[in-house]
Amino acid sequence: MASSIRWTPPGVIILTLWIAGLVPAFRSFWLGADNELGPDPVRSFEHLLGLWAFRFLLASLAITPLRLVTGYSLIRYRRTLGLLAFVYALMHVATYIALDLQFDFAILWRDLTRRPFLVFGMIAFLCLIPLAATSSQFLIRKLGRNWRRLHRIVYVALVAASAHFLMAFKTWHPEALLYVLSGSILLIIRVGYKIRSQVRQTGAKM
Amino acid sequence: MISRSFSEPRPSEITPKEYYLRRRMVLAVTGFLSAGAATGTVKAASLATRPGGFGKAETPTSLADITHYNNFYEFGLDKSDPARLSGSFHSRPWTLRIQGAVAKPVIIDIDQLIATHQPESRIYRMRCVEAWSMVIPWDGIPLADILRQAEPLGSAKFVAFTSVLRPDELPGQRSGYGSISWPYVEGLRLDEAMNPLTLLAVGLYGETLPSQNGAPLRLVVPWKYGFKGIKSITTMTLMETMPPTSWNQLAPQEYGFYANVNPDVDHPRWSQASERVIGSGGFFGERRQPTRLFNGYGDQVAHLYAGMDLKTFF
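ok -> structure tokens follow
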């Protein structure tokens, strides 16, 4: 990252995105370390990281629908948003294992083999790993068409993360429903445009 | 003979007094500042209590944590909602009705109830189904003492509890989306209700129960998950058949009628093997401890379930 900072306006925006994007994590970590995160600080921190992971995932997935609908492209910021989603997911999982379970791997194993709530969460996280790993300009060029195919995994991540989010509450939670609904709308816009362009293509061939 | 002895917590389990006092001071200051704004609501008044024989050795979770971290869906879904949104709830005047399979149905005024049965202070562990726990110094009256007033009939096998229904004062009851169908209802088998551990709490830390914790009276069944402890009770009905219970109606695979604390019966979505101890040392030191069968009250209650498969009747 640091080596590739370009002092052009987009470069500055990307740097700002990174700094601003990490503020919620640093702020909560600071409050947590100071014991100012309420009666159950670990849970509060864990949930905040998960929520921001989902927010950045939605933001990265909103770039293309935004272009399709308004013609306005923010594509150059999509990688930063996607990587922020990954970084938050990584911190979320690390907090779960280190601070919540306190490295009790017996419980971790039981959770990951028996509980759909945590299985969905882990699927979402595992999906984001290859996406983050292949996010460099070099690999985007090298993988070419395969890069686009690989990055369709993000939709699996979205579906798994949505299930995880909804199942985190004992009842239907309006906030979680709103986030999942937003993700679904983004997906529907994409699929809608895809179908329309295919219909046009077949129409042109006839 | 039911044992009144308790397994004592390890010294490390106990909230350091220094923290506990500091939290109380913070609470006192904030309470003073907000007192002016809280007109129209019932403020905590001190209760005349007598010491009970239960859990004397346990050092309680701070009052601030007990009153600012709890589930009370009538006020909202978040655990900070009850303290934040309970300002317009009126817990006086209040009457408790005991009806159904009883020889003498009664309607008792809450203040009369407190005056006739001098509340006893008891320190109980509280284990939430969400895998966290606290230690709470309740002031209350054994449920058995109250039920006996109504003289349950021989045919009575269960007690059904009904909570308050007041959408005007309880924002969570106004929301349109489907979750719990109000009012909240709970139930116990009669022998569970008559067990000496089962308490109707009217106070906390020697003062009347705050609205967010279930004023003016709530059920406390320390060997069961917290959701069995129905709050702001209006009616108790003695029944011959098992009554419906709110969480069981909502998700029968996740919440059983018995809901006894059991580390070997996991919730479908998370492990019940261990629990986070609220207020036990902050961010890096928050303690996770193994959960005990019947929340450690097996000596007092295990006989109630002799011969029952606890995995089937969870």
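Chain A has one domain: 2-205.
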